[in-house]
Amino acid sequence: MNIKYHIETAWKLCIGNIVSLIILTLVTAAVSIVSIGILAPVAFAGYTHSLFQLLKYNREPRTQDVFSQLRLFLPLFIFGLAVFIISIIGFTLFVIPGILFTLIIGYTCLYMIPIMVDRKLGLLDAIKKSISMVTSSHLSDHIVVFIIFAALITVGGSSFIGFLFLQPFATLFLLSVYENIK
Known about the structure:
Strand content: under 5%
Number of domains: 1
Radius of gyration: 16 Å
């Protein structure tokens, strides 16, 4: 896997569409905050769909795309709630199980939302496919992709400006990798 190619692809798309990406990221964040996180997963799915359209068809992201994946609300809400509860239990009992569970879920479900958006699969089928993708071939490549993606999201989440620029970059990077391996 050519990681450099995926980083360059994400960078070129970000630079070429910076204004629309910032607006889309702001709208996604606003929807997530106003809904107290309830709509965050489905808003991120719509965000992913919009960036997928940019990557595949060079279509400029639109703010209404944030609401384009509302059909995924219930499965993503239930999944998010289950992950939240299990993570809280893991962190409450001992910190290490919570960290391990979070890392395992993050890695195995790395491509879950892109799969749900791209292939219109249900939650369980998307999880199975994501697990299959990250555990089959090129395991070390997927670990590197996960580390880069997690690092970008973590650094981006540390400041508002970082979030506005690194969230679209990280998502486009992940989508570029997904598009190459699917």
